[in-house]
Specification:
Elements: H1 2-10, E1 18-26, E2 31-40, E3 49-50, E4 54-63, E5 66-72, E6 82-83, E7 85-87, E8 92-93, E9 104-106, E10 120-124, E11 129-133, E12 136-143, E13 149-153
Antiparallel strand pairs: 1-2, 1-13, 2-4, 3-7, 4-5, 6-9, 7-8, 8-13, 9-10, 10-11, 11-12
Length: about 170
């Protein structure tokens, strides 16, 4: 009987609203990033989605069109910097306000020195929006901290397996 309860817990629940978003960021000096995230919509996160709400997340960076790095939620470890503040009603990531000095830390701390050897990360802090490559901040990617960072809802996003925690909750519709 216990095994049946376990299987039912993994079974997709009817009526659960899932939201997926795509986003693109344009930094300075040819740096850019694309990505996607997903979360289960709840009353609690209707106005603010935090990192603990996110079930799937992936970012890929480029410079002048050439790949420079990638990070996915399944790569998160105990020392990973991981903060996310997203406003679904505005379709935008927080870049300033809410009393938060670094609202986005995606495998990158404020010093830009913890994205891992050969790693990739991104953050938005009070000094700017920028990338980390190979445990080093890429100051030449930096743009103004208050630059808007929009996202577009796209529930057809298909995520790679390392982008999701636990059972994949989204599939192409």
């Amino acid at each position: 009987m216990r095994w049946m309860v376990g299987i039912l817990a993994l079974w997709p629940q009817q009526g659960v609203a899932e939201a997926a978003w795509r986003f693109a960021w344009e930094g300075a000096n040819g740096f850019a990033m694309t990505g996607a995230m997903a979360y289960v919509e709840t009353e609690r996160n209707a106005s603010l989605v935090r990192e603990w709400d996110v079930t799937c997340f992936v970012i890929e960076g480029t410079r002048n069109g050439a790949p420079v790095g990638r990070w996915a939620l399944g790569m998160k470890g105990p020392e990973t910097s991981w903060r996310l503040f997203f406003l679904p009603e505005k379709g935008a990531f927080v870049h300033d306000g809410l009393g938060v000095t670094m609202p986005q830390a995606w495998n990158m701390n404020g010093a830009g020195n913890n994205c891992g050897e050969g790693g990739f990360g991104f953050n938005i802090g009070n000094l700017g929006q920028d990338m980390c490559l190979d445990n080093r901040p890429q100051w030449d990617s930096q743009i103004a901290p208050r630059t808007p960072f929009p996202a577009q809802r796209d529930d057809s996003v298909s995520f790679p397996s390392d982008a999701c925690l636990g059972p994949v909750l989204l599939s192409a519709r």
